[in-house]
Every structure is written in C-alpha cells, then in structure tokens.
Amino acid sequence: MHDVMPEQQDLWHRLEAAVKAAHDSFGYRRVRTPVLEHEDLFLRTVGGESDIVTKELFSVDARGKRKVCMRPEGTVPAVRALANLGLLRDKKRKRRVWYMGPMFRRERPQRGRLRQFHQFGAELMGVAGFEADVEIVLLCAAIWRELGIADRLELVVNNLGGLEERRAYAEELRGYLASREGSLSATDRMRVNANPLRVLDSKEEGIDEVLAEAPAMSKHIGDKSQRHFDSFLGFLDDNGIDHREDDRLVRGLEYYTLTVFEWIPKGDTRRQSAVCGGGRYDGLAEALGSDPCPGTGMAAGVERILEMMDGGTERSVPDVYIGMTGQVYEDKASRIRLLEMSEQLRKAGFSVETCMTRVKISLFFQLANESGARLAALVGKREQARKEISIKSMATGVQDDPVPQDELVDRVKSMLKLGEGN
Ligand code: HAM
Predict the structure, then answer these.
(1) How far is the C-alpha of 300 from the C-alpha of 262, rounded, in Å?
(2) For residue 20, what pLDDT is reported?
(3) How far apart are CA 43 and CA 75, in angstroms?
(4) Among the atoms of ligand 1, which is closest to the Cα of residue 253?
(5) pLDDT at site 422
C-alpha cells in the first residue's frame, strides 16, 4: 500500500489517458464494479486451491450470511456484472468491457507485490474463436506502444487445452510429481494435490531438474484445441508480433482454458514480474451461474508498468503564478482583489496558482519558479498604489512596465499567445 503523491500524478494521468484511448479505439466500454464483492464468487471461479483464494483474499466482516471480500482481480466482477444484466444471453451481441481500479491481495509485501495495487483490464465475451485472443493481444500491444514500453516487453504464450484436457493432464502430472515428492519443496508438495499445474509455475529451488522429466502438456491437447492455438500463433507470426512459447506458463487463476499469455520485461526469464497476464476462460460465465459464454481478456499491473515508463513527462504547471508582496498582502481588501484577479484569469481559460503567503519579492519569484508557471504576476507596494500589476516571463526573465490591473487578462493573453512565456 502506498501513497501516490503529486509528483507521480502526471505519469499516472499519461497512463490512464493512453489506456482509455486504446480501449476506445478497439470499441471497449468502461465498467466500474464495486471493491467489495461476495467471497463465494471468487471461491467458485478463481479456484478454491489457488493462492489468491487460499492465502490472499482480504475477507471483510460484513455481519451478513454471505461473506464479503475486497476484490482480488477484475475479471470475475466484470463477468458477474454482465451476467447480472442478462447481457451474456444474446449470442449475436459480443460484449467488450474494460476497467481500471484498485485490487487487493494479502501478499507478503515486497518489491512489485503490493497488497493494494491497481490493474486495468479488458474482457471480450461471446467470441469462441481465436480472433478474440488475437484482439486482446493487439489491444495490449497498442497500449505498450502508446506508453513507449513496447520494445522492453516480451510476450509469452501457452495452450492449456480445454477443461477436460487440462484435467487429464493434471492427473498425469500429479502422478509423476508424487513419484518425485522427495525432491519437492514443502510449498510444491502442497500444490501437488491441490493443483499440480501450479508446480509448473514454481520458482522453488531445484524444481527445474524435477520438471525436466515431467510429462508434457501437449500430449493431452486435442485437435480442436490445437487448431485454435495454431490459428492464434499463425496470426502473431504473420503480423510480426514477437512471442515465445513456454509450456510452463500456467497462470495463477484456475478459470483459464486454451490460450494463456503474459507480458514480461525482457530478460526476466523466470517470469517473476509479469506486467500483464490473461487468456481465455470459456467456463467462467457458467461457473458464475450464468448462461455459458466464452470469454477472453487481460489485466495489467499499473504500478509495475509505471516503473517501466520514462519519468520525463510534462508536468502540468499553471500558466500564471500570482501574488502580492509584503504589506500589501496584509490588507484584506487586497487579498480579495488577488482572488478576483485569479478568478478572472481562470474564466479567461488560464490555469492559475495564487500565492497565499506574505512574502518578500525574492521569495515570491522563488515560489513562482517552483510552481513551474510560465508567467509570474505580482502586486507590490508601488503597483498597489497605482492599481497596477507587474508580469514577468519566467522563461525569458523579461518583465515589462506594470500594466493596469484591469488589463491583466489581455496582457496575459498576448504574452502567452506570443509565446513569451515559453
Ligand atoms: P493476474 O496475473 O493475477 O491476472 O494479474 C494481472 C497483473 O496484475 C499481473 O501481471 C501484475 O502485473 C499485476 N499484479 C498482480 N498481483 C499484484 C500485486 N500483488 N502487486 C502488484 N501488481 C500485481 C488477473 O488478475 C486476471 N484477472 C487477468 C485476466 C483478465 N485474465 C483474463 N482477463
């Protein structure tokens, strides 16, 4: 959990604007679902044995019969919201939604793992074909390009097969892992019974040797599932979208079928800090009690992406920093005039920061400089006596003769239009 202070806001705004623009350009519409959800929704779908549910769910004592928790992710809430409104029934109408907001997982806090973090994500409901998986990957790629991080990320993909295929493979893998129990860590031993596929994703020491001889998932993938995945890969190949296949990519949530993927920082071969993950979840709607409806989607961790973005963004700065020095500021009528002038400038379309301290002239210009304003407008004793105001361009340092206060707006207009303030 951490605060996002003003200095970081411009980066956040840049990310938020890029995310919105990309979703708009693919025809996705925003949903905002509550932070609090019924706990059983996640137990039924994310997987009763997944880390998220067994260790990481923030339960809330809501004093009701049905337990409530803070949402750990956005897919289940988005699908629930669409299902509640009956929007998954019409097979001809595909649903495209996106979201952005805080998520909560009771992780052991460490770099890149927060207990309150933010995700943006998109879900495409109703399309069973590979083209939906492609669209989601293209959407991600468009966002990375817009944020200037495309060449720092690598796409890793895998095929988990249909539900039955995955189950059959899990059984075979369980048998194999049980035979190698002595070589597994305590954490992995627990996973063998609960969800053996998670062992493939393990980062525990010594696991690579055990898995080197493990049965391969590909043996259990049927023709239909293979064709789906091949079409997906074919599109990526033909359209120059670099990717790497990794049959150990299984994802931490249990609702996935067929295509799964992660975007990881290049060079992070153990996939420890994926910035984005997603895939297909054709059984999820049904598990939520809705009509069956295929779905595919992605979600990305905002904090992890911000770390990759270049900080050198434009800071939003006021056009004008305005104030009064010394004794002039002591006078209530002057302070009222200061507020009025600030407001006149704003109504004319300028952004204004009003200096609300009694300052000497040197400190006034120091504060104006810190604000980043393009112009500094100042009423000192001499100006006050003549109802004038001095305006200085902070970039050029040029300060012309004072102008009547009534002409402030016009003068600021001409100075900023002429680019003098730049
Ligand atoms: P996920 O892989 O659990 O997938 O999370 C997606 C992304 O959220 C991760 O790649 C990571 O960047 C970020 N993230 C997850 N946990 C944390 C944390 N504790 N601290 C910081 N960042 C974190 C999902 O949540 C799925 N709902 C994605 C999806 C959408 N699948 C289909 N549609």
Answers:
(1) 9
(2) 98
(3) 13
(4) 3
(5) 46
